Amino acid sequence: MQPTLRGTDYAALCEGFAWRFPDRLNLAAQVCDDWAADAPERGAILDMRAGDMRLCSYGALQLLSRRVEAWLRGQGVGRGDRVGVLLSQSPLCAAAHIAAWRMGAISVPLFKLFKHDALASRLGDSGARAVVTDDEGADMVAPFGLPTVTEDALPEPGVWPAVETRPEDPAVLIYTSGTTGKPKGALHGHRVLTGHLPGVEMSHDLLGQSGDVLWTPADWAWIGGLFDVLMPGLALGVPVVAARMPRFGVEECLRICREASVRNVFFPPTALRMLKAEGAEIPGLRSVASGGEPLGAEMLGWGRAAFGVEINEFYGQTECNMVASSCNALFEARPGCIGKPAPGVRIGVIDDQGLETDGEGDVAIQRGAASMMLEYWQNPEATAEKFRGDWLVTGDRGIWEHGFLRFVGREDDVITSAGYRIGPAEIEDCLLTHPGVATVGVVGKPCALRTELVKAYVVRKAGHDPSAEELQDWVKERLASYSYPREIGFLDALPMTVTGKVIRKQLKARAAAECEAETAGEVS
């Protein structure tokens, strides 16, 4: 597949751009089968999980996906069925998605750091029929009674014709972080990758150049790892490095980049901060992309010196991703701004009536963007609430500055911690299941390293005295390990509205004041 953007005139690229889809479109063909037919020996994934480097070609990736497909068919999985993929970066992770898409099934990426309750909500809501995983993941899924398979148990491959799918047919169900209420499943069609490509190419200074090699420390279970890195790389013929680290470490990061000759990398902001703190430098990079939260001028300046290239910031969310980006190959970045809209995407800053405004307003994306979700899975009410007229409302506030989008803040209560977008509602629900918790409010507390850390304010039940450590372990055992409250404060009562809702705004102010007092104490 050829890159979408050709040329270096941003205005001309946008003016001449239009989404053109064939009547039949299947993600498996885009990312694997077409390449396997034309260039089966071409490198698809550079597998560094064992410490060395092993090349997985497109032909080998297709063969592995055919083995997954044979197993799925043996389980009775068919068109429209949901298939869980509980794997970190690996060829099998890619192959599992490819197999599901070729069959017309719907893949459901799942994070290996999820605990029981987080997995239960996603597997239950999606109605997954089977899960492709590893030995650790099989133990995690065992309580749910679903059939699972690991790579060493896959059957011999078969060859079945690919199911004919249209651009709008469902392909992948990606759950949000639960920023407002429980996590919702964003259902995307087979056009979703095509919709990502312009923004991905921009964020990597026109990805698809000779010698490009792509990597991210972000997990492939999230849309940022799956559709900002893995699948675009496979579609464009750019080798993708599989080297997921249990925890991000600067030395290991430098080793991966050096040994795999990485030229294009997506670093979440927390990874950048850790690299900066260690004074790390990475030579040989052609592009560095970052997204999830805005970077300041100081970080961008440091990146320019440490990497020898500009860091391109990009913007999007699970429901409609890669809609704006900086691109040093097309235009000079504007400090403090995210970037410009990707070709084919119309971004608006709108008021409460859904009308565009010249001042600050809600960042929204007009219907027609190819990376936009089809709907929230089996949730028409939430789907309707996500739109304001013809606009998908992101929940973020922004303003235009000379054609650049400046991020102002978030309308919701999302917590941005170490690159993860964490919704407080799921953590609150989990803590409320503890017998010693009467009520709880969860907010983000400012943190220099993580941007924010998760802080829970808890009111204990009468006659109970759970410790902070006990409550932290309670969440760790049930939700994702990155989302447990790193701090817990105990209060006699929480600020409440007249209808009984926790006023998180007051708790956030309290957390910010605590941070200021702690900082002042360190200075003095």
Automatic annotation (TrEMBL):
<keyword id="KW-0547">Nucleotide-binding</keyword>
<dbReference type="GO" id="GO:0006633">
    <property type="term" value="P:fatty acid biosynthetic process"/>
</dbReference>
<dbReference type="GO" id="GO:0016405">
    <property type="term" value="F:CoA-ligase activity"/>
</dbReference>
<dbReference type="InterPro" id="IPR020845">
    <property type="entry name" value="AMP-binding_CS"/>
</dbReference>
<dbReference type="GO" id="GO:0005524">
    <property type="term" value="F:ATP binding"/>
</dbReference>
<keyword id="KW-0436">Ligase</keyword>
<protein>
    <submittedName>
        <fullName>Acetyl-coenzyme A synthetase</fullName>
    </submittedName>
</protein>
<dbReference type="InterPro" id="IPR000873">
    <property type="entry name" value="AMP-dep_synth/lig_dom"/>
</dbReference>
<dbReference type="Pfam" id="PF13193">
    <property type="entry name" value="AMP-binding_C"/>
</dbReference>
<dbReference type="InterPro" id="IPR045851">
    <property type="entry name" value="AMP-bd_C_sf"/>
</dbReference>
<dbReference type="GO" id="GO:0006637">
    <property type="term" value="P:acyl-CoA metabolic process"/>
</dbReference>
<dbReference type="InterPro" id="IPR025110">
    <property type="entry name" value="AMP-bd_C"/>
</dbReference>
<feature type="domain" description="AMP-dependent synthetase/ligase">
    <location>
        <begin position="33"/>
        <end position="377"/>
    </location>
</feature>
<dbReference type="GO" id="GO:0015645">
    <property type="term" value="F:fatty acid ligase activity"/>
</dbReference>
<dbReference type="Pfam" id="PF00501">
    <property type="entry name" value="AMP-binding"/>
</dbReference>
<keyword id="KW-0067">ATP-binding</keyword>
<comment type="similarity">
    <text>Belongs to the ATP-dependent AMP-binding enzyme family.</text>
</comment>
<feature type="domain" description="AMP-binding enzyme C-terminal">
    <location>
        <begin position="426"/>
        <end position="501"/>
    </location>
</feature>
<dbReference type="GO" id="GO:0004321">
    <property type="term" value="F:fatty-acyl-CoA synthase activity"/>
</dbReference>
<dbReference type="InterPro" id="IPR051087">
    <property type="entry name" value="Mitochondrial_ACSM"/>
</dbReference>
<dbReference type="InterPro" id="IPR042099">
    <property type="entry name" value="ANL_N_sf"/>
</dbReference>
